[in-house]
Amino acid sequence: MAKWASWIHKWLALLMAVQILFWFVSGLFFAIAPIETVRSEHRIANQEVEPLVIDEMSAQFAALNLPEGYQPLTLEVRRLLDRPVVVLTSVDDARSLYDLGDGQRLSPVTSEFAQTIAESHLTGNDEAIGLTFVEEESTEYRGALPAWRVEFEQASRAVYVAADTGQVTARRSTLWRTFDFLWSLHIMDFKNHENFNTPLLIGVTFLGLVIILTGFVMFPSRLGYYAWRRRRKRRRAAK
């Protein structure tokens, strides 16, 4: 049995050597890289938030330049670039952004507005070097669509701004992309980088378990236990 276990152990280990290496390398990277840095949370600018005066909002809501007959299902009041805004959500889950100061609609957000939002979102004086209008999901971004992808030179950083709400929905960088690539190798989802219940991962993990179990079967043989038993039997038979 130990002979068969040795054969299975050797060839399975050889077959899975690359994937096992991927698991160790990616696991080491995940342990070393702080997730806050991967998500560029350390680059988020601290913005002083002024309190909103509730008593003034009834008049501000009444002054919104809404389409005739429009009845929002929900509303969210927040500050955007130091001014009060409101995000209205309709019954069909469509969202729109309005300025509470003058009642004008701000969505869909323009490229210039998205650039200003992204630049104010990050610390430092980084200036955007490019903008892309994103309408489809990708391995890099699966947030609200459509959105503006605002690109920066430092660390190939990109900030995503939702076109309907003006909200920053994601931050990406070279470090994040490295993390995402290693994550795809770790979970063996090479297409979408998010599903860790794939049959491939389950099958390879099962083979890894077989390698461990056959190693346990081989362990006594490698320690010389079986050879010691044979010598002991021969000595007894010789007496």
From TrEMBL:
InterPro entries: PepSY-ass_TM. The chain crosses the membrane at residues 12-33, 200-225. It holds the Pfam family PepSY_TM. Keywords: Membrane, Transmembrane, Transmembrane helix. The keyword Membrane applies. This is PepSY-associated transmembrane protein.
